[in-house]
Amino acid sequence: MTELMEQSATTKITFPSLNLDPQILRAVEEEGYTEPTPIQIQAIPHVLASRDLMAMAQTGTGKTAAFTLPLLQRLLPHASSSVSPARHPIRALILAPTRELAIQVEESVKTYSRHVPLRSTVVYGGVDIKTQKPELMKGVEILVATPGRLLDHVESKNLMLNQVQVLILDEADRMLDMGFMPDLKRILTLLPKQRQTLLFSATFSDDIKKLAQDFLINPVTVEAERRNTAAENVKQSVLLVDQDNKFNVLADQIRSRDLKQVLVFTRTKVTAARVAKMLERDGIPSDAIHGDKTQQERIKALDAFKEGKIIALVATDVAARGLDIDQLPLVVNYELPPNAEDYVHRIGRTGRAGASGEALSLVDDKEERLLKDIEKLLKREFPRERAVFAPIAHASSSHRATRYSTPGHGKKTTPEEDWFLRPYEPSPVSAKVEEQPSIREEKPKKQIAALLSRPLVKP
Ligand code: AMP
């Protein structure tokens, strides 16, 4: 435990007590942060003391400010309003695994540095490299980059890394998962040996420890949350649903809770695209982000989601990594991730920086093993509730007439409603549902309804 952590047990640590410049504190205050988060309390003093740091912190803990605020403080002596590019060499390099995370981190850097004359920019793949060159040529102190595109710029001689004093590896575990190790090793050879290195990772696997050995010197280790524990302020629940019924349960959850924002995770790009399309057809504004989308499409979808123009954003694990959406109330795992640790990352999108959130997993029989892996990792068991379905006797022919409800999500059932809890039977409507080619694959094979808290569809 650091001195400050010990102190925080008795007195409240405030931002001013962290020895940050008033102009940095001004930006923090403007963001409405009243007190530092645990990872900020732990990391900031070490970064200011020029120590190498290995920090275990998930997205949502305030980790970006944990490294950016002391970084700005450290670079302040170099702050300059000069227009000469020579006065603005790259002094800090922040590497991030995905374009979305890189963009978000750079936005945070811009936010926190708004009152100090330090420049930043971001470079990532998927867009024309030439469009990124002018900004680099003007000179920036802080460069946020994805590893591959950084090396492209090095190759094109658009930038020099020989004056980098601070290297930050953000979401290092994901960079390794995505196969960036060779790129990272190459980048390392381009940096001065004398530098400070900060490594942030949601998990400390053996691979991460090995990476730390190669990249860091005598690092301090800090930990915002214990290994592989999911955020405690996130309510997690499991609903057992057949694959065929998942879509309707999802749509019902969104409608019956009157959700304005929900992030939905799927395992594959194909499912992400399909679920988003089906939600749209069902009258729920949605979009998908996944690897096949262009960068512009992904940014557009993300912005629309943040601005409330769409309700559901359907994403694959890689595309959603690092997304920072304020006060996201619900994350739905439409499919469980093959890798249990990704579950922790996924649900870290809600309940961020102290806010409460909820994660709901729709699990079919085939995913039981994956669920067990997650339970093993988190050392807890989730109660399983089954979504209950029954036919609507006189449902309208539209697939939107399908009604669902889920246990624990409404009032007690009446005898009439109990009737609907019996196993469902095919209705003539099902044929019509199946006739709709674009939704055939994921629409229920039988028209079903469910009930508990929902009004029945009148004949
Ligand atoms: P991060 O873990 O860096 O992705 O940050 C998650 C969210 O927490 C972001 O929306 C930040 O703006 C917010 N945040 C960071 N530090 C604080 C703080 N001290 N108080 C309140 N919110 C914060």
Describe the structure.
Residues 390-459 have low confidence and may be disordered. The N and C termini lie far apart (66 Å). The longest helix is centred in the N-terminal third of the chain and has 14 residues, at 99-112. The chain has helices at 3-10, 22-30, 38-48, 63-75, 99-112, 133-138, 147-155, 172-177, 181-190, 206-215, 243-256, 269-281, 295-306, 317-320, 340-347, 368-378, 415-420, 429-435; strands at 53-56, 92-95, 120-123, 142-145, 166-169, 196-201, 220-223, 234-240, 262-265, 286-289, 312-315, 330-333, 357-363, 384-386. It contains 18 helices and 14 strands. Helix 3 (38-48) runs parallel beside helix 4, helix 4 (63-75) crosses helix 5 and helix 7 packs across helix 9 (181-190). With 459 residues, it is an alpha/beta fold. It folds into two domains: 3-223, P-loop containing nucleotide triphosphate hydrolases (Rossmann fold); 234-421, P-loop containing nucleotide triphosphate hydrolases (Rossmann fold, 3-Layer(aba) Sandwich), CATH 3.40.50. Strands 3-4-2-5-6-1-7 form a seven-stranded parallel beta sheet, with helices on both faces. The radius of gyration is 24 Å and the shape is globular. Adenosine monophosphate binds next to helix 4.
In short:
The chain is α/β, with parallel strands linked by helices and 459 residues long.
Oligomer: single chain
Number of E-type strands: 14
Terminal-residue CA separation: 66 Å
Any ligands, ions or cofactors bound here, and which? adenosine monophosphate
CATH superfamily of the largest domain: P-loop containing nucleotide triphosphate hydrolases
Q: Tell me, what is the CATH class of the largest domain?
A: Alpha Beta
